[in-house]
Fold these 2 entries.
Entry 1:
Amino acid sequence: MLSTRRKPFPIGGSKGVTLPGGMKVSDEVSIAASDRLLLMDTTGELSEDRLLQFFMESVEPAFQRWLESRKQSGTFKPMEAEEAAKTKPGTVAIPPGFLPGPLIYDVTCPRCGGRFGWDVAAGGNRLYCLYCGMPIELIL
Ligand SMILES: [Zn+2]
């Protein structure tokens, strides 16, 4: 798996993006895309129709859910949204007597141990770990 950031370049009426050199890329690739996301089978093994079906059934709905949670939390950046969606939510108890003010709780992820501040007033008690994407429900 890899992630990278590239600058698209104009090529004819389209735009090109170079693929990382380490990837296996066949003579022909298949692509499925929305106006924002792109899924490419660089082996070209899957037909573009099959890929589009998978894209519409699995990728786009998961992406929309993930994007929605991200908007709710403000700073949500999971690396494994798909995995998170399949994971049963963990729970974290807020210590009693925690004084209200800005309701920022110090949350420690039960899966990866990542620590981050969580604003309950802004984001509610359902969140995703900022590091591993695990769904977490705060017990308030
Ligand atoms: Zn985590």
Note: Residues 75-140 form one domain.
Entry 2:
Amino acid sequence: MSPARRYCSVSDSLITKPKPRYAYLTFLVDGSDYWKGALALHKSLQLVGSRYPLVVAVTKEVPVKLRTLLSSHGCLIREIEDVALPESYTPDKYLQPYYITQYKKLRFWELTEFTKLCYLDADTIVLKNRDHLFDLIDSPSEIAGVQDCTCEGYKFHYRLCNTKYCQIEPSRAPWTFPDGKPVPAPYINAGFFMLMPNQKVAKDLVAKLWEFPPTGLAEQDYLNHYFEGRIKILPLANNLMLCNFWNHPTKVSVETAEMVHYCVAGSKPWRFDPSKPNMDHPAVQELAKKWHEIYGTDTTTPLGAVSPNSATLKAVVAAERPLMSRSTVGGVRVVA
Ligand SMILES: [Mn+2]
């Protein structure tokens, strides 16, 4: 190779763009037992050999001891700020107090140290490697997600449009054009979505919330509204909500599930309540057991054949450590 050619190679490498940084993301709003869900999710990501770390976004209400615990397992902790809400956003029988805290998810777009994030509620686990999902979105103005089960009432604009409609299998319950409204755009469950952090989008999301009425499902309704027409819809297996086992039994199976979402009342495995409806369903029983297996797995020691990529993950986590100093980026405080 000629010296000139070598010179070109060096200059090419100098102008190479920074490597994209991908991460999984979950969220805790307080000191409640949801941290157990976050830890199980982290372990499940390790068990399937995910190449990217789990970021746990926490509010100021999340105690230091929980942050330290999750950090000791290799999670990255990022504190996010509150989101100011209009006065009309007061808790009531529609907009429940727990749901109101979820508007803070809008701060995820401020986590611009990451190029792309795969957000997962803390009441989820992954059963298959999902690293390929990061290829799905290319723009901060879009998200990707999975349609919510609307069989028990179409939820978007809850107070205006509480009609029974099945968006997953419309043949079961067609749209009835209430008040002449056209068939709605696909409506995703906000327990899982892919996003690209971006300060401009982050500011716009928070600003436009003030033009939007409070609705029963809080940030889920708002994200569906804000990104309408810009949501990539993924198969149900990517966010398998337990209610799909009885509402859409031909569409889902435990075997094909990539991620399980313990969203149904009573089904959170760390406080399973067998007295709630459908908790004796074989799939619910099997997946509750699965969660406990994963939660009980010691992922702090090398996982060998179970997780061929665990060494890779440890390397990623180790590489993150120098970044974990105290500083503030946008509304995000880097705290651990
Ligand atoms: Mn959830």
Note: The mean pLDDT is 86.
